[in-house]
Amino acid sequence: MMGSGKTTVGKSLSLKLNRKFIDSDQEIENASGLKIKEIFDKFGENYFRRGEEKVINRIIGLEEKVVLSAGGGVFLNKTLRQIINTKGVSIWLNANYKTLFKRLKKHIDSRPLFKGHNFNERLNYLINVREKYYKLSHVITKVDNNSVSEIVDNILKSLENRTLNDKSLSRS
């Protein structure tokens, strides 16, 4: 979800894992020469989502293992969700309403999904619609009141446990 800390946590996690960090929104901006807000304003959300799908597919197809910060709407796309969950490990940075509100309220103007909506109502709506998809992630970690290093450590522990479980399953 936007405001959950995907970019900050992703960069820190990539350093710990010694992997390249890629932010899908930044890649979309680089490819289009436009800011995300401008893409939404000029062409609409559907156009943005089609471009997002192309960018995610390109990144997922890379030989190199990376830490990808995918936009908050990516996991709603069934095809992308399946590709990500098949070819990688998905992580949901689970932030509650209070945390998201606090982080996003300062940047409402740069968030196109809030344009023309009551901020409180729209944030609740987005959380409610998206949560069922985010729950399909391999790793779920709470971010509320945790530092970036605590979040990254929790993710690393979950990844380690996941690897250990995968190895024990393959032996049985």
What's the pLDDT, averaged over the residues? 91
Distance between the termini: 37 Å
Can you summarize the main beta sheet?
2 strands, parallel
Tally the helices: what do you get? 8
Quote the beta fraction.
Answer: 5-15%
Backbone CA Rg:
16 Å
N-to-C SSE string, H for helix and E for strand = HEHHHEHEHHEH
Give the uncertain stretches in residue-range form: 167-172
Beta-strand segment tally: 4
Morphology? globular
Structural class: mainly alpha
Could you give a short description of this structure?
The chain is mainly α.
What would you say this structure looks like, in words?
The structure is a single chain. The chain has 172 residues and is mainly alpha-helical. The protein is 60% helix and 9% strand. It has eight helices and four strands. Strands 1-2 form a two-stranded parallel sheet. A two-stranded parallel sheet has the order 3-4.
SSE topology:
Layout: H1 6-17, E1 20-23, H2 24-32, H3 36-43, H4 45-60, E2 66-69, H5 78-87, E3 91-94, H6 97-104, H7 119-134, E4 139-142, H8 148-171
Parallel strand pairs: 1-2, 3-4
Helix pairs in contact: 1-8, 2-4, 3-4, 4-5
Sum up the structure in keywords.
172 residues; disordered C terminus; 9% strand; two-stranded parallel ribbon; 4 strands; two-stranded parallel sheet; globular; 8 helices; single chain; mainly alpha
